[in-house]
Amino acid sequence: MILGLDHVQLAMPEGGEDAARAFFVGLLGMAEVEKPAALAGRGGLWLRGGDAVLHLGVEAPFAPARKAHPAFVVGALDEVRARLEAAGLAVRPDADLPGIRRVFVEDPFGNRIELLERARD
């Protein structure tokens, strides 16, 4: 029986750690989590933002996830969108769902990322 979700993993190309940090830490405000020593030599990056945990693992050959994606809940979608657009990233709105506003952006490697904000009561 599933009790929860521990993390989501996306692939990245070898050597992309600095670009990942700039995007996920610098623009989205996640914090880097130290990888266990047994896994550190594999490259990649572990990140946390609130309850969301994201692992970026090196994959060769690399192909971005264009349809499959994580959806991160943010507290101020308009502010996050403005920060991403100011950094030159294309932010694509999508149909809002009941009680949810959402947009899509690509990480530095072309992986699809959904950002959503729930309506406040």
From TrEMBL:
- Can the keyword Oxidoreductase be found in this entry's annotation? yes
InterPro entries, A to Z: Glyas_Bleomycin-R_OHBP_Dase, Glyas_Fos-R_dOase_dom, VOC_core
Could you tell me which PROSITE patterns the record lists for this protein?
Answer: VOC
- One Pfam family it belongs to: Glyoxalase
Q: Which GO terms describe its molecular function?
A: dioxygenase activity
Q: Which UniProt keywords apply?
A: Dioxygenase, Oxidoreductase
Q: What residue stretches are annotated with the VOC domain?
A: 4-118
Q: What is this protein called?
A: Catechol 2,3-dioxygenase
Q: Tell me the lineage of the source organism.
A: Bacteria, Pseudomonadati, Pseudomonadota, Alphaproteobacteria, Rhodobacterales
